Amino acid sequence: MVSNVCLCKELSQLRAVVLRRLSRCPSPQQASKMAHLANPPKAPSVVAYGQVNPVMIPFVKASKTAADMTKACYFCGVLLRSAEEATIPPKGKVCISTEIMMAIPEGHYGHVATVNTMARKHMVQVGAGVVDSDYRGIVKVILFNHSETEVKIPAEEPIAQILMDEIYPPSAVTWTKLNEDAQLPVIGSASAAGSDLTSAEDCVVPPGGQKLVRTDLSADFPKDCYGRIAPRSGLTSKNSIHVGGGVCTSRTEPIQVLLFNHGQDEFRIAKGDRIAQFIAQKVVFSAMKPGEPKNLPRSKLAQIWAPPPPAAEIDQFAKIRTPLSFTVGPKDKTTITIDIQQGIPRGCYMRIAPLFSLAVNNSIDIGGGSHYSNGATKITIFNHGTTKKTFEMYEPIAQVIFEKAAAPKFEPRETLDETERGAGGFGSTGIRRG
């Protein structure tokens, strides 16, 4: 067996030979190769979690089919794996068990996010996706299949990623009622990640359609956060309801909730019904730098390859603009590649989030969207509408948010500490009256 010392010596000698050969005829291309070899590029900028104290997360395996969480950690989260075989029907959904129970520390919640490759390949998206710190039940993952083809999920397959997002408690948000129809948000449990938003009107969300629902509320929250409007698990599991857009800034007034109905039945909402939850999500503000033009390899998974524009105009809470024109068909998806040069701030991951205006006007959503390195970044765009959407060159397609999250270190336990909520809450009530 060749030792590491010998291997390093051979690699060093090989590099010297290549440099000598290139130096005999230094064309522009060869000069570039010489510079690359003499000064190897640094790895892409990723989250610097090696310098951050990890957060201990106790977990319990409810059965032998559960994955070992201690071997699956990366950056600010962990891959969740299926503990069972499952099939997601076309235009349908399924709830898959991980057979894992965990105790997330206060000041955080488990953000269950879509695996980017599942969005690109199969148009699969996570529904609901909020695990509160006082929840002690088995973590389950709701998956929507927006494609026309069934998707088979083998046992032990990665089905989602759970990120330990940092948040402010619901009490940090000050609410104002804008008229008599508004109702102040309700906190479901003592350690809930967010507060439940209620409808200020009677309305109907048609099957396969969407509805912008009034709350007639405004919110004041800390400057280093934004308001994430997230789905309620009961509405997702029972009624196939998902939230579109979902990014509120301090300028958002009044707050409105865009609901997608991915089911086959109409969904009726009465005034006072709980329709979503509002989470004060901590972020790091950092100006984005425009991407430099370069040749990027065409991805086999990408339907459209997009070189970065001369001025990408990518900035915090602003917009990522497409460098070319493309079309997303009705009930279809498209993947493009954008070059993002900005490094990710320490203790954060990069979220590519949907734009509220595109969601409302064109039923556009982002598939996946959680990233841990910069550079060539694939963005998958879902069109939930019934008409095609054509994006012109430099038109906004999404926005970048640097979300603060903890570095998890999972520790196996026989039992977890008890909470008043316990295993209750996930999909237990569907719609709730205010």
UniProtKB/TrEMBL annotation:
InterPro entries: dUTPase, dUTPase-like, dUTPase-like_sf, dUTPase_trimeric. It is an enzyme of class 3 (hydrolase). Keywords: Hydrolase, Nucleotide metabolism. It comes from the Eukaryota. Belongs to the dUTPase family. Residues 80-171, 181-289, 321-430 form the dUTPase-like domain. Residues 411-421 have a biased composition (Basic and acidic residues). Residues 411-434 are annotated as: Disordered. PANTHER family: DEOXYURIDINE 5'-TRIPHOSPHATE NUCLEOTIDOHYDROLASE. It holds the Pfam family dUTPase. This is dUTP diphosphatase. Gene3D superfamilies: 2.70.40.10. GO terms for molecular function: dUTP diphosphatase activity; magnesium ion binding. One of its GO terms (biological process) is dUTP catabolic process. Pathway: Pyrimidine metabolism; dUMP biosynthesis; dUMP from dCTP (dUTP route): step 2/2. Its EC number is 3.6.1.23.
